[in-house]
What does this fold into?
Amino acid sequence: MAIAQQVIITAVDAGSVEAEQLLDDLSDALLSINGDSGRSSFDAEETRGGRGGFFIASNSDGDLLGCAALRPLGGDGNSTIGELKRMYARPGQAGVGAALLAHVETQARHHGYVHLWLATRVVNARAMVFYRKHGYADILAYGKYVGAAQSICLGKVL
It folds into this structure.
């Protein structure tokens, strides 16, 4: 019987060596799925400050397992909507995505967000199944995703 690994989630700067390594892995994975790395949709600066964050998951040996980011949507310090960005779990790491998502949701609540939104590509069926399994539903497209047929926007009331 396999023993579930311990997942340790830590807040780090999105420019740290660990974060950059995971972001590079995510970009490579998205490029192979979508034909677009998604790099242009992420600004590390938006995770810094009081209502954002960048989180890495590792195991007890310090091996990097995944990452996720939280930012205020629209840049408004009073926004009730947080946005999940750069969610990634390395292949074969069962439970890491769910642990990261739960952590980001907890952080979002702590920062006063009422909703958590995200966007992914329609072709990324695995991501859509994952988010729907965790209570996310289709929402109207927002921001740069308005009119972007290749994207789907999902949201959850926290």
